[in-house]
Amino acid sequence: AAARYPEIAMTDAVLDRVDRVLFSSEPFPFTEDHLAAFRADHPDHAAKAQLVDGEMLSWYGVRAAAGLSYLKDLADSMPASRP
Predict the structure, then answer these.
(1) What pTM does this model have?
(2) Which CB contacts under 8 angstroms, 24+ apart, belong to 39-43?
(3) What sign for the dihedral angle of Cα 8, 41, 73, 66?
(4) Distances, alpha carbon 31 to alpha carbons 25, 36, 74, 76, in Å
(5) What share of the chain is helix, strand, coil (3-state, %, to 5)?
């Protein structure tokens, strides 16, 4: 049976190529416990883990415009780590 949510293998090769790993509160309710587990499993990439507001990223309609602004603010808050 197909997984309910997409899954990505969190290998060092994958994590080396990303700036952030976003843990959304929706549709799956990731929590600080999930961030702690990620950080324990991937200490070299611990700083990349960030909990984000799933309503802003997953809901359509009235939240869509605000969600774009939310994403821009997230991107602007990221340190420039790659060219």
Answers:
(1) 0.77
(2) 41/10, 42/10, 42/12, 42/15
(3) positive
(4) 7, 9, 18, 23
(5) 50, 10, 40
Peptide bond into 27 cis (omega under 30): yes
pLDDT tens per residue across span 32-61: 999 999 999 999 999 999 999 988 888 888
Q: What's the CA gap between 38 and 3, in Å, rounded?
A: 20
What is the four-CA torsion angle of 77, 13, 43, 9, rounded to 10 degrees? 90
Asked if residue 74 lies in contact with residue 45, where contact means CB atoms within 8 angstroms, the answer is no
Tokens of 43: 């200490």
